[in-house]
Specification:
- By secondary structure, the protein is α+β, with helices and mostly antiparallel strands.
- It folds into two domains: about 100 residues, Aminopeptidase, CATH 3.40.630.30; about 150 residues, Aminopeptidase (3-Layer(aba) Sandwich), CATH 3.40.630.90.
- The protein is built from eight helices and twelve strands.
- Helix 5 crosses helix 6.
- About 45% of the residues are buried.
- The model has no long low-confidence stretch (mean pLDDT about 95).
């Protein structure tokens, strides 16, 4: 294990270095995503530094005390296989342990999964990334999320996700209201989506419709209408019985697999079968 590497807290001045590392990996995050993580996970974002250069990152986000989220585990290819990723992960986990977080989750690449298994993580379910180009569909009549909706959407989301992520969803709504939608059944929230604009693709997620496949299709059509002509990424939750068939039906292609993993009792798993797509590997 390398001893000439310093692990320290990440600051906003490290964002260009974080962008360089995620570009090397071909990921889709923006500077805004990095800044959001620094704001939401104050004291929980770390960088590895060797000879004055940032060569690795990790973020540790708290969703209250029920759930912590590890993301953005990146190591420069020139510095891999030297224990840097393990040291970064240790720092992230130690931060969450000090905060008293009960369960920690992450979305693992096939390569990363083997490391996480040795550190006490267990498999929960699989996630698949699908991609394609948004083509206009028939009008759905589903409207954007407005200020009077956001609190109700966040409350509904907390029951399905298993933790309160109102701060994240509110930020996504404020930054890209044109990529949000909500549908009701009577007075109850029945489904919704949020989206982001990325450098490689526009991103759909979270996308939630309970077990209503017709509503799931309508919400997806609404997003595709708004993102017409854009390249799209969607990370579907394989615990949902309909998400894959919906993506196949619109001609999207499967790009990669991730595994959602957890460490701890996982007493608040939410209802992943009700979620069509996640909000991103860095956020859950």
């Amino acid at each position: 294990m390398s001893t000439d590497v310093e692990i320290r807290e990440m600051t906003s001045q490290d964002i260009p270095a974080g962008m360089r590392l995620k570009d090397l990996e071909g990921w889709n995050q923006t500077e805004t995503d990095w800044m959001r993580l620094l704001q939401f996970a104050s004291g929980g974002c770390f960088v590895a530094v060797r000879e004055g250069e940032v060569c690795g990152t990790v973020t540790a986000l708290c969703y209250g005390l029920h759930l912590g989220w590890i993301g953005m585990v990146l190591v420069d290819p020139k510095h891999r296989n030297q224990g840097i990723g393990t040291r970064l992960l240790d720092h992230g986990l130690s931060y969450l342990d000090r905060r008293g977080v009960e369960t920690v989750k992450l979305d693992a690449t096939p390569t990363g999964r083997s490391l996480y298994l040795t550190m006490g993580f267990e498999d929960e379910y699989e996630i698949e990334r699908w991609e394609g180009t948004a083509a206009p569909k028939k009008e759905t009549g589903i409207r954007r999320i407005e200020s009077e909706d956001i609190r109700r959407v966040c409350a509904h989301d907390a029951t399905l996700f298993g933790a309160d992520r109102a701060r994240l969803l509110t930020a996504l709504w404020q930054e890209a209201p044109e990529y949000t939608a909500v549908a009701y059944s009577g007075c109850e929230v029945a489904g919704y989506f949020f989206g982001r604009i990325g450098p490689r693709a526009h991103y759909l997620g979270p996308w939630v419709a309970g077990r209503n496949i017709k509503l799931a299709e309508q919400l997806l059509m609404e997003f595709l209408n708004r993102a017409s002509g854009k390249r799209i990424f969607v990370d579907i939750c394989m615990a949902n019985p309909d998400a894959r068939s919906i993506m196949e039906a619109i001609g999207f292609t499967r790009q990669r697999k991730l595994t959602r993993m957890y460490r701890g009792p996982n007493r608040h798993p939410g209802e992943p079968s009700m979620i069509c797509a996640i909000s991103g590997p860095e956020f859950g």
